[in-house]
Structure formats: C-alpha cells, structure tokens
Design brief:
By secondary structure, the chain is α/β, with parallel strands linked by helices. It has 11 helices and 11 strands. Helix 4 crosses helix 5 and helix 9 packs antiparallel against helix 10. The longest helix is centred in the middle third of the chain and has 19 residues. The protein starts with a strand and ends in an 8-residue tail after the last helix. The structure holds octanoyl-coenzyme A. InterPro entries: ClpP/crotonase-like_dom_sf, Enoyl-CoA_hyd/isom_CS, Enoyl-CoA_hydra/iso, Enoyl-CoA_hydra_C.
Length: 261
C-alpha cells in the first residue's frame, strides 16, 4: 500500500495492486494545466514501476472528472507554445493507452475537452449519473487537440463524433451510454465502490495474459488488420508455456479455481 502526492495529483496503490490516480484541483474542476500533466506522466511511471494490475483515473471533488485543458493557460499561447502543450497532453493520453494494465476512467462529473480525451485514452469508462461529457472546443475557437478527433470516432463512430465535435454539445450520462461513449452508468454515490469492485476483479486475472490482451486490442487502432492479426498470432502463442496458461487450463480440466502467479 502506498500513496504519492503532487500539488495537483495523488496516486494511491492498494494491496491488491489497484492504483488510483486522482486529479486534485477541485477549485478549477480538475482542469489540466502543464504542471498537472507533468505530474500525471510521473504518476503513470510510478504506477508502472510498482507493477500495478489495474489503474483507475478519476477527479477530486463533487463535480469534476476533468473539465478540460486549462483555458486560462491556453488563452495567450502562440502556435509553438500550443504545439508543446498539445504534445504534453498527447504524451499523457499515449501513456494511459499503452499502460501495461487495464485503465478504468471513473467519470464522476464533468469530462469536457481534454477531460473527455483522457477518458477516451482509458480502456474502460464508467460514468456516474451526474457525468456530463463533451468536446466543446469549437465554442472556444479551437478543436479537440489531445487525440479527440481520432479516438472519439474510433470508439463511437464517425457520425456521432462529428456531431459532438461540430455542435460542441455536452451530453449527459445516459446519452453518453447510448452513444457508446461510456460502458456503464451507475448512481453517483456507488461509482467509487463499483469501480473498485471491477478493478479488484481485473487485478486477479493473469497479469501477462491481460497485458497481451490489451496490447492486441490496441493494435486495432494502430495497424491495418493483417498486421494486427499477425500480432495476435504471435502474442497468443507466446502465452503458451507460461505458468498462468498451464495453471488456467489444468484448473479447468481439474474442475477447480485457478491460482494465477
Ligand atoms: N480551464 C480552466 N478553468 C476552468 C475550466 C477549464 N477548462 N473549467 C472550469 N474552470 C474553472 C472556472 O474558471 C472556475 O474558476 P474560478 O472559480 O476561479 O472562476 C472554476 O473552475 C469553477 O467553474 P465554474 O464556476 O464555471 O463552475 P460551474 O459549475 O458553473 O460550471 C463547467 C462548470 C460547466 C464545467 C464550466 O466550468 C465549463 O464550461 N468549463 C469549461 C469546459 C470546457 O470548455 N472545456 C474544454 C476546454 S478546451 C480543451 O480541453 C482542449 C483540449 C485540447 C488542448 C489542445 C492543446 C493545444
């Protein structure tokens, strides 16, 4: 069990290997400034170094998951400065996407702009009934810049992505569910426990197989299908001969619960 804090972020790791990264800037609805993004990169490295099995990403306070990139910070940026900021946001989203364990976004409130994009980079999204989600950048005279133009249509389809990005609409949790933007909606006061249960269950699965599953599924977005299928064949075969593969299959045949490494 460990706890690491930055000024605007905390990382808690429990005994089951479940890490929780909480953006902690509630007075600004957890808007992501450069300092917080840098801290997120460090927290992701730290979680990886601690070999965690599942990572939960959420926001502090009663209202916010992450209300977006920090508009105060962006207002005066020049193009080269904006590029740097975009790259920093991309590094965070890429690090979440390639994190070697499942990442769950517990969307406990506003997830706008960069906040929606952070959620999109996670493997799974669970929303509280109070969540409101959107890519409202168009009304700030910009567009999604941390992967939203790419990951959103892959997740929910091109037409729906265009609607969200063009109109800048903010949709509630049930519409987000209908759009396929979140996998599940739960009562606000049950979100934390529900996600903790999911995380615990995932943390008990065989680690190496889970990593391979995530990496293979990520290939869908990174490679043409023939390359993805070739990757899957290689990755699948590499699991044979591991303790967890032998144990998982023996346990099935012996009609008992497996004991994974
Ligand atoms: N950035 C900075 N501060 C913010 C942000 C934000 N995104 N969102 C909220 N805040 C601040 C408010 O300014 C306010 O601060 P203060 O108390 O000092 O005035 C505080 O948080 C509380 O906010 P509100 O008083 O507005 O609270 P409400 O409950 O009335 O409203 C909303 C909450 C609906 C979330 C509202 O704050 C809002 O609409 N926020 C902006 C949402 C938004 O447009 N997000 C998208 C930002 S753009 C983006 O994310 C681009 C990503 C790509 C970046 C590319 C880099 C180049």
């Amino acid at each position: 069990r460990s706890n690491v804090s930055w000024d605007t972020l905390t990382l808690d790791v429990d005994d089951d290997g479940v890490a929780t990264l909480t953006v902690n800037r509630p007075d600004k609805l957890n808007a992501l400034n450069a300092e917080t993004l840098e801290a997120m990169l460090e927290a992701l490295d730290e979680a990886e170094a601690q070999d965690v099995r599942v990572l939960v990403v959420t926001g502090a306070g009663d209202k916010g998951f992450i209300a977006g990139a920090d508009i105060g910070h962006m207002q005066e940026l020049s193009t080269p400065e904006a590029q740097e900021y975009a790259e920093l946001g991309h590094r965070v989203c890429d690090a979440i996407e390639s994190f070697p364990a499942p990442v769950i976004a517990a969307v406990n409130g506003y997830a706008f702009g960069g906040g929606c994009e952070v959620a999109l980079a996670c493997d799974l999204r669970v929303a509280s009934e109070r969540a409101v989600i959107g890519q409202p950048e168009i009304d700030l005279g910009i567009v999604p810049g941390w992967g939203g133009t790419q990951r959103l249509s892959r997740l929910i389809g091109d037409e729906r992505a265009r609607r969200l990005v063009f109109f800048g609409d903010r949709i509630d949790a049930s519409d987000a569910y209908e759009y396929g933007l979140v996998g599940e909606v739960v009562a606000h006061d049950q979100l934390e426990d529900h996600v903790a249960e999911m995380a615990k269950e995932l943390a008990e699965k065989p680690k190496h197989a889970m990593q391979v599953a995530k990496e293979s599924l990520n290939m869908v977005h990174e490679e043409p299908q023939n390359a993805g299928l070739a990757f899957e064949r290689r990755a699948w075969s590499s699991l044979f001969g591991t303790h967890d593969q032998r144990e998982g299959m023996s346990a099935f045949l012996d009609k008992r619960d497996p004991e994974f490494e």
